[in-house]
TrEMBL record:
Record's keyword annotation contains Cell membrane: no
Domain NADP-dependent oxidoreductase per the UniProt entry, residue ranges: 19-265
Chain positions of site Lowers pKa of active site Tyr: 81
Keywords for this protein: NADP, Oxidoreductase
Known EC number: 1.-.-.-
Record family assignment: Belongs to the aldo/keto reductase family.
Gene Ontology MF: a single term: oxidoreductase activity, acting on the CH-OH group of donors, NAD or NADP as acceptor
Protein name: Putative oxidoreductase/MSMEI_2347
Binding annotation for substrate: 114
PROSITE patterns reported in the protein's UniProt record: ALDOKETO_REDUCTASE_2 (PS00062)
Active site: 52
Amino acid sequence: MTAPTDTITLNDGHTIPQLGLGVWELTPEEAYSSTRAAIAAGIRHIDTAAGYGNEAEVGRAVADAVADGEVTRDDLFITTKLWNADQGYDDALEALGVSLDNLGLDHVDLWLIHWPVEKWDRYVDTWKAFVTAREEGRARSIGVSNFYPEVLDEIVRATGVTPAVNQIEIHPGLSQQEQRADNQARGIATESWSPLGRGVLGHPVIEKIAAEHGVTPAQVVIRWHLDQGLIVFPRSRRPERVAENADVAGFSLTPDQVEAITAIDDDPDYSGRIGADPRDAVFGTPLA
Ligand SMILES: NC(=O)c1ccc[n+]([C@@H]2O[C@H](COP(=O)([O-])OP(=O)(O)OC[C@H]3O[C@@H](n4cnc5c(N)ncnc54)[C@H](OP(=O)(O)O)[C@@H]3O)[C@@H](O)[C@H]2O)c1
């Protein structure tokens, strides 16, 4: 069973709380209130991104929680991501400065390349910038998101540095066994994005398991991630759900229950991606 503050050790020796809060699609005000609610509920890991437009409010929530004596900066693990349009060696390092200014921090605990955008062919230079940022101490750990074996091979070949994490879409209906095994073979920790899926909380298998444990469907799905060693940061704009999502230490799933939820991959009504396929995804302004 995992308490909100339980950690996983990354390949660079740093630790990351396995359970966090995601803030994608939250308005700045919601990002502030959900971050405060998460810290109050014992969550110590916040996952934001330059592309989410709410780094400043996450940073303000962190500063206020520290000022109110709830936590210290060192208790917290803050992730942000480089937006696609800022890929490239110099642009990436400059964009990190902007993110740190927005967050009001001198370093992030984890900085991720948000998407590889293979067709723009800047991800290798971008990864070199990430290595520099780690050497500078402005990013304690560095990693990637939405990467797949071919692009992982290239950035590691060019730098000799393996990402600490790869953040990919994972939820019941898209358990991503292959990419998870690939990450594991390389010593990369896997983070699950959109962990609650879309509509899957109403799946009969999940409802049945929730009833067996006397917990909510969201809590079952969060445990499905945690019990498989995945790092997970569900998002909610509602403080009561932020607290519910943090309250998952009192039970764990049996191997059969984990397997039954994973088998939703084969249910055509619930299986498949809800986000873009990283091999095709191009978001943001094309680079000159
Ligand atoms: N790297 C990437 O490309 C990428 C892509 C997507 C997401 N992410 C990261 O992953 C995080 C999580 O993914 P996500 O934001 O897509 O979605 P998610 O956490 O899987 O699901 C969020 C949705 O679930 C609802 N919800 C939350 N808690 C609930 C509960 N206890 N019961 C019922 N419904 C609940 C929320 O509604 P309410 O707000 O109304 O509660 C919201 O509609 C993001 O915030 C972001 O940090 C990264």
